[in-house]
Every structure is written in structure tokens, then in C-alpha cells.
Amino acid sequence: MHTIVLATFNARYSHASLALRYLYANLRELRPQSAIREFVINENIQQIAERILAEAPRIVGISTYIWNAGDVAELIGILKKVSPETVIVLGGPEASHLPHRVDFSNADYIIGGEGEIAFYELCRDLLSGVERNNRFIKAPTVDLSAIALPYDDYDSNDIAHRYVYLETSRGCPYLCEFCLSAIDDKMRYFDIDVMTAEFEKLWQRGVRSFKFIDRTFNLKLSYANRILDFFLAKDEPYFLHFEVIPDHFPEALRGRIARFAPAALQLEVGIQTLNPEIADNIHRPLRLAKIEENLRFLEEHTRAHLHLDLIVGLPGETLESFAQGLDTLVSWSSGEIQIGILKKLSGTTMARHDDPFGMVYADTPPYDVLKTTHVSFEEIQKMKRFARYWDILYNSGNFTQSVALLWPEGKVFDEFRDFSAWVYDQTAATWKIAQERMARLLFDYLVDVRHCDKEDVGRAMAADFSKGHGKRLPPFLRPYAPEERSDGEAARGSASTKRQAQRA
After folding, report:
1. Domain holding 356: CATH number?
2. What distances in angstroms separate CA 95 from CA 66, 118, 234, 347, 396, one per listed residue?
């Protein structure tokens, strides 16, 4: 039995909620009567309610995000019908900003902002019989030196089976309008000595995969260098993920990044758009020459895996402008390029663009754009399919040589758009397309529609499969396999299955 249950729906089982662990770490004397319970979106909501209520909690705190808002609303509705005396407290980005676009009316309290202290104080008051009159509680910004850190609350199962998330700073100095981080425009840092001590404790417990959620990891050079130096001193294989700004890679930082082994370092680089006019519309800094210089350096002189972001549907941007951005990025980097559809997040200032640019959004999560003055609803739908097939073929690293045959003259967007339209005509599907089937589709399109040389296509695809670490060649590719692989077996290679290694 637990008096307080902290719960959320993660997007995948491999994810672990850092937010819940922060709340739990700061419950002080209430910790012994509290527990974290994590679920995954699209589980049976009634069974989850049953599991929560089996612990007879007086308070249930739920962390709410754009990906789980619908599940949260359904859950709290069931909890209140079955156990109306249980106090429901919501927090997280999707609950923090009014007006709510999902019905959270069954929640007793909602905490907006950083909840570590505010949630503890609310629970303390409620359990002591102190009434709170305000349903919506605006939490003040916390002192990072005064809160308990959550990393001891990753358990052995988390370490063995889940990502371990960390943060060394909060806030973002930039004002990009599509991003909630722009609300907190002052950078605050945790003490670096304290953080490296936490890294060491996690390392000693066996953690080898560290995912940092800082928005601008490389902004403060001395801080970033200390963190990189910590890991560079380690000998065993490990994996690090950082979000970085694309125009700030001084020499000292470059030198450190260049020292990391292949598949050890992943950098998520927020590009979003390469059109200066569009970037100016949404208050996003865009120093194109510096971005190109840095991406080319990372591509040519480091073994870091790059994950670049582009957004479809930004205010004022046409598909032609987006196409130029995609073609340019492919010429600058061989890293993954994540193509996302613009979302209108609660709390951002994106609404000011609605009338000038005809922005129309879905009313349900993830609130993706449906059309703009410059991009029609039909084109947005096509771009969603484009993005899905792009992820399967380009970002996966499974078709590195063969997918490039689509654009011999560098017209990446135009050629892949035509291919994605053809694939959808053949399949009427974007999900549950097996890799072998997608390979056959790509082969047929290149040979029958684009009239590429069958031998060239077959050899490229066989080479791609051989790079896949033990993947058996599909029957239609076996005639194109190298002689030493004529039995259809792919090269064994490394045991790693990471997309980083696939694209190396």
C-alpha cells in the first residue's frame, strides 16, 4: 500500500520518466509511503486504474505530455468514477498551460511549471488536512542547488532495460516560437562537480547509455568540456546522446568530439529550417555559413552520429523552400534527418501566426498542422507519408547505397516524393511494412519505373543487406550477392544493432 502513487504513460517501455523520479526524490519524509508506477501508452486503461487503486493511494500524481494526454484524461475519469475520494494531481507540459485542449476536468489539482517542491508541499498539506483553494498551482522556478537529484532512483531494471535520462541544465536562451523551452529563456546549470559525481555513481552501477535532455548542451563551453572529459577518460564502450545548437562548435569542443569512438556519440542537431526568412518569422537564430561549416566538420572529422531535424509546415514556408533545405542537408551530412510535422504546443506563441499564414491545426494531440496558406491539407498528408518512408529507408541505415540511387543528380526531395507517392499507391500503408517488402518495392521502383540498371541496383541492395550484421538476403537479391555470400548469408560484422552503427 502506498499513500502517494506517481504515475505516467511513457511512449515506450524503454523510456523511464525522469520527471517522476524528480518528484519522488523530493518528497522528503513522504518518500517511504510513495511509489513510482510507469505504464506505456495504449495499454488497457481500466487495468491500469485497477493496478493503481490496488495500492489504496490517497493521492495520485500523473505526469502529462502531448503523447499521453488522451490516456491520462481517460485514466483520471475512471479513477474518479471508481474512487472519488482519491486526489488526482496533474503536472507536466500538457497540463501546465491553459486553456487545456484535452479534458482534464476530473483532476483535483494541476501544477504548472517545475513541480519538485510544489508537489511535495501540496501532498504534505493534503495529508495534514490543510485545504488548498486554488485548483491550478503555478509553481515557482526551483533553485537547482536546493532540490534532490533523481539518479539514485533508477533501479536495476531501469539500468538493464531502459534509457537513463539526465539533465545538467534547464532553460534555453533562444526564443524559437514552436518550442516550450523558449518560455524559460534563462539558462540555469546544476553544479558540475555534483553532476560528474552522479555520472560516476551511475557508471559504477553499470550504466553505459546516457541520454542528456539539455536543450543547448554545447552553449557553455567549459561545462560541456567537463562532461565530455569525464567520458573520454573511460575505456569501456558507452553511448552518449546530446542535443546541440548547430552554430557553436569552438575548436576546444571540436577536438574533444573528434576523439570519440564510432557509435559512442550521438548529436541531435536542431535545424528545423534553412530558410532565413522563415527562421526570422519564428525567432529562430540561423547562421547558415556557420551551420554548414560545423556540419561539414562533424561529418568529415568526427565519428559522431548526427540526427538532424527539419519541420514541415512552419509559418510562411512552402514545400519548395522545404525541398531546398532537405537537398542541402543531405549534401552537408550523411546523418539521420528527422522530418517532423509542425505541432502547436500549448504555452507557445505560435497562435500569432494563425491568421497571417492560414495555420489550421488538429484539435487533438499531437496538434499537428493540417494546412497553411502555403501548404495544402493534401500536401501535408503526403508529407506525413514521405516522412514515414524516409525513416524506414534513409534514417534506418538499412538502405544506404540503394536509396541514394533515387537521386543521382542530387534532387533528393523531388525524387523521394515521387517514390513515396508510388509506394503508397502500391501499399495504401505506412506501417507494418516489413523490411524485405520495402526492399522489393525499392528494387521494383528503381528498375521498372526509373529504369536503373538491374545489376547495379541488385548489387547495391545486396551490399546494404550484407552490412546488416547477419541479415539473410531476400531470394530476389541472391543472384546479386558477392560470390563468397552466394548462400544468401549476410556478413556477420559487429553484434551492434544500433542505427548509429548501421549508418557508419
Report:
1. 3.80.30.20
2. 9, 15, 40, 10, 34
